[in-house]
Structures are given as structure tokens and as C-alpha cells.
């Protein structure tokens, strides 16, 4: 069994990038969605991305952004992966010639098999809880809604934290887990001890 990859999302400060990297995160997420308390402007994002060492992936998160805005981010920030967290179509996500993942906002009644089929070139599907404001809501969804087979890497998110991530990994065996508010001490302010505890929880479940 391969080890579960870990993404820490919504970083806004240099010390939080260092904490995520030192704890062993595989990816960090930068939020390019202005209404979010975790939003980072391109200049700040470029400063944070410059702190990320080789073999740790820098992910840019967008919500229903104009193509011009995404292109501007790509021109100014070294992003290796795009995360589309809104209502973007396959064509909109695939327009940039970069690897991308698509977030599905899960609630009862959602057809995740159909959702997966409608985004065929996504590198992975990120399953998050349906919340007002699109994401980063710290809410766990009903994991029994996850189909047996989605046909592509599954990134589990939504309300994960150091206390529940081991159980999540044992039950779902996702390709990766993604966390934001569960490792924060305040909106957009990460807590190094919580990041380390989260990573330890994943590794504990990996066995
Ligand atoms: O972080 C935000 O504020 C945000 C805003 C709009 C869309 C997505 C957003 N964040 C997504 C994430 O940080 C994660 O991919 C995921 O939703 C997990 O969040 P959390 O439940 O807080 O761990």
C-alpha cells in the first residue's frame, strides 16, 4: 500500500509553509479566491511558493475564476497543479495545459460517478463537504456517499483534523488527504503543532 499523500491548504504565512514542509506535507495550497480569509495576492503567493522545496507540490486554488485571472496567477506564481473548487466545467479546467484536480462539494443526492465522468481529464477528484462559500468550512461529509470506484485518485477533505484523520484514512484509503481549518489556530493562521499531529495521524493509519 502506498503512503497517503498530504496537502495542507490555505497557507498565508512563511512560517506556515516551513511548518508544513518540515512536517512532511507533499503539497501546499494557495487560495486565489478573494472572498476567502485565506486569500493570497499574487505577489505574496510568489513569495510563499519560493519557499517550497523540490518535490513538494504548490497547488493554486480557484473558484469560478476568469481564465485571465488564472493565466495571471500562472505567470506570476510557480504552480505545479491547479485546483478548481467551484462550478467549473471540464473545458474550463483543461484550458491551461496544466495538471488539475476538481473539487466535488458533497451532500446527499450528489452523483459522484457522474461528476467524475464529466471531468475526464482531471488528475484527481477532491471530495469536500458542501458548505456556503465553497470550501474551507471545516465540515465533515457523510463518507458513505463515496462510491466504491471513482476511476481516478481520490483526495479526501472536509473537516479533517488531527483527531479524525487516522480514522478517515483507515476507512476510505484515499490517495491523499487535504486539510485547512483543522490545522488552524485562526482563519488563515496555521498551527505548527496541529500540522505535525495531522501528519502523524496519517502516518499512523498508513501503518
Ligand atoms: O479555504 C478557503 O477559504 C476556501 C474557499 C473557497 C473554496 C475552497 C477553500 N478551501 C478549500 C480547502 O482548503 C480544502 O481543499 C478543503 O476544502 C478542506 O477544507 P477544511 O474543511 O477547512 O479542512
TrEMBL record:
HAMAP family: PRAI. It catalyses: N-(5-phospho-beta-D-ribosyl)anthranilate = 1-(2-carboxyphenylamino)-1-deoxy-D-ribulose 5-phosphate. Pathway: Amino-acid biosynthesis; L-tryptophan biosynthesis; L-tryptophan from chorismate: step 3/5. It comes from the Bacteria. Belongs to the TrpF family. It is an enzyme of class 5 (isomerase). The keyword Amino-acid biosynthesis applies. InterPro entries: Aldolase_TIM, PRAI_dom, RibuloseP-bd_barrel, TrpF_fam. Transmembrane segments: none annotated. Residues 6-199 form the N-(5'phosphoribosyl) anthranilate isomerase (PRAI) domain. This is N-(5'-phosphoribosyl)anthranilate isomerase. Keywords: Amino-acid biosynthesis, Aromatic amino acid biosynthesis, Isomerase, Tryptophan biosynthesis. Its EC number is 5.3.1.24. One of its GO terms (molecular function) is phosphoribosylanthranilate isomerase activity. Pfam families: PRAI (PF00697).
Amino acid at each position: 500500500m502506498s503512503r497517503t499523500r498530504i496537502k495542507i491548504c490555505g497557507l498565508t504565512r512563511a512560517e506556515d509553509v516551513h511548518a508544513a514542509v518540515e512536517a512532511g506535507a507533499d503539497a501546499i495550497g494557495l487560495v486565489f479566491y478573494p472572498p476567502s480569509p485565506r486569500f493570497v495576492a499574487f505577489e505574496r503567493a510568489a513569495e510563499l511558493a519560493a519557499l517550497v522545496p523540490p518535490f513538494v507540490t504548490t497547488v493554486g486554488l480557484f473558484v469560478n475564476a476568469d481564465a485571465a485571472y488564472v493565466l495571471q496567477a500562472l505567470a506570476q506564481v510557480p504552480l505545479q497543479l491547479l485546483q478548481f473548487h467551484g462550478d467549473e466545467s471540464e473545458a474550463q479546467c483543461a484550458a491551461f495545459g496544466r495538471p488539475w484536480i476538481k473539487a466535488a462539494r458533497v451532500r446527499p443526492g450528489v452523483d459522484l460517478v457522474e461528476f467524475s465522468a464529466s471531468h475526464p481529464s482531471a488528475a484527481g477528484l477532491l471530495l469536500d463537504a458542501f458548505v456556503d462559500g465553497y470550501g474551507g468550512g471545516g465540515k465533515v461529509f457523510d463518507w458513505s456517499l463515496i462510491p466504491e470506484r471513482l476511476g481516478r485518485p481520490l483526495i479526501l477533505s472536509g473537516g479533517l483534523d488531527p483527531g479524525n484523520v487516522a480514522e478517515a484514512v483507515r476507512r476510505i484509503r484515499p490517495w491523499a488527504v487535504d486539510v485547512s481549518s483543522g490545522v488552524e489556530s485562526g482563519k488563515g493562521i496555521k498551527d505548527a503543532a496541529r500540522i505535525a499531529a495531522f501528519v502523524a495521524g496519517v502516518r499512523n493509519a498508513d501503518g
